[in-house]
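RECORD CONTENTS
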Amino acid sequence: MQLNYSQEEEEDELKVELKQLIKEIEKEHQITILFVGDVGSRGFKWENPLTSDFDLSFIYTHHYKHYLTIQNKPQTIIKKTFINLSNKYLLSKASTFYNFNENNENNKKLIEFNLLGYDIKYALDLFYKSNRAIIFLLQTPSIYYINNNAIKLFKEKWIPICFKLTQRRALLHQMNHIVKYNIKRYILGCKLVRVKSYLYILHHLFYILYMYNIKDNNELFQSILPPLDFTILLNEINNLGFLNKKLYGQIICLMNLKVNSDQLEKKEYFTSGISFNNWKNIKNNSEINANTINENTTPSTTTSSNTSSKKKKKLQAEELVEEKEEVSPNDIFVGHSLELEVFAVLWYKTLAKWIWDLHRELLPGDLLDTILVEAIDLYEERNL
């Protein structure tokens, strides 16, 4: 993979704002930020251009003296902020799924930014374990900033190492475990399912299936990783024959709903399942009152016969609270799809057995140590 970033690249509206934010974070924490990328919906390319937040992860380093201690120090930085961006700019980055409306190109929008920073030593420790969060960050097609002095480090060392030496078994096992958890939590027993949950499960499944398809070509299997862009993954998996026409139509419908959520009425939920035709036809389907959303989306709970009714009510109440906390005003829900559930469950089980039998490998620690030393050397003093 070639690093999709250039020092000479023209700065756009977002990068100007981000550079200012980066300077503020560096000054506040006395760090040097090396790399910033999107690992959320905008990294997967299923965002709504006008309402989706930015889920940014970054890698930073301290002065070398920070690491000369036996004390445990914070390994992450978490920050939430809002940035004003013009609709025109946001729409210029919209995917092909977005249904453009000329009336919404004017004015500015306050967009939420959720930032999670990893200390360089912690990031390399996670990378050594082939942690999905760091692998996705290094893979993201949405890179917003690289420190000028760090471009060579990422371009010539860290990203090539990511593609060649990532432990396939460890990475795929993590992702399949996430698929299993989300199927149980958000699909099984649910009358309504959040569109984002479907897409999240499918994205991880497609990522694994991409690798499963090349399992017999060891050289290829050990040298590439699947793209994070969901549209590219979807087309690849469809072309390989993993999806039938009906299932593919459902997924296209989900993408259209997610990307065009700003053009649907607030808290609009659909109970009749997923349409296979034009996504707009869904707007004619029957709706339910938004106040009942938690009741309908709560997974069924299996309890033993000797469980008291009081305990059952307590468990159900706890689940309702969890669901209420997780529902966002921008979330779109659709009726449960048996086809998607069967596809997800069957492939999860098949892939779990295959992943378990994969060869276990370890990344060379000495190689990562050299990256650590080089990265710490890139620290720049910040005036308080």
Q: What stands out?
A: The two ends are 39 Å apart (CA to CA). The chain has 15 helices and seven strands.
